[in-house]
Amino acid sequence: MMNKISVGMNRDEFVLFYQPEYNLSTCEIIGVEALVRWISPDKGIVEPELFIPLAEKTSLIYELERIIISKALQQKLEWEQNGLEHIELSINLSSKSIESDNDFRIIEEIILSYKVNYKTIIFEITETTLIRNIDLAMERLDRLRSLGFRIALDDFGTGYSSLSHLIRLPIDIIKIDKSFIGSIPARNGETAITKSILTLARDLNCKVVAEGIEKEDQLEYLQKNSCEGGQGFLLCIPLPAEQVVEEMKKTCQYSRS
Ligand code: C2E
Ligand code: MG
Ligand code: MG
Known about the structure:
- By secondary structure, the chain is α/β, with parallel strands linked by helices.
- Helix content is 45%, strand content 21%.
- The protein is globular and about 45 Å long.
- One magnesium ion is lined by residues 33, 92, 124, 154.
- One magnesium ion (MG) is lined by residues 33, 92, 124, 154.
């Protein structure tokens, strides 16, 4: 498998799909999240959960992440040149990239070689990444933020969720994990957690994005409870770049106004 990933990188078999993120009150697309896919000649489209964890076990993740970041920023540049400069781009960062001095430096160099509007770029990291080496992570995140980038805490609620850590972290956006969203409003426990994350984020001055919205009653609940942003199959699945641009031209049927 490792060898196949490596060959796949040389053959340029890794592509990015983009899932739109919506402003839940206006139902407008405000940004997209880049999600990697492996177009394998023998297996077809392979989901990231089948190869990212493997790549992370070796140093392959470093090269893969450089490919992903370069492709995402190249796409962002093209969109900016085509009148879509306001569309935000979110890029997932592996914990290994944050932790390695050398790789983080290379990533910084790649990013700085793309003259795009850094204020519209968000790096997504998970709690587990941060907590493992909190001082190092804080230093790295502060560096990215000083360049204008924003930081989102991905899969929130599934990691250590240490609130004392959370208040210290330089975080702009909290993404509520899809495991909670999938159970609202049907299950009391998950609904209560979602509600408290929304309150917590508001008090901490963080924006909140709900991931994994699949049903209308979930969307309605989030809209009623003033969750600002959302993604999910109900609104739009991850799509290749050209198709996601088509999606931006459509009007969404779930607007509240
Ligand atoms: P994530 O960053 O939390 O991404 C959200 C995942 O939820 C994506 O899965 C997306 O397709 C999926 N999703 C979106 N809407 C729904 C929904 O309504 N229902 C359900 N059940 N799922 C939904 P995907 O693309 O398979 O990615 C899985 C994970 O792999 C990501 O979770 C992220 O941790 C990692 N990943 C994906 N692309 C990259 C990348 O470019 N770099 C790194 N380092 N990790 C990546
Ligand atoms: Mg993410
Ligand atoms: Mg997530």
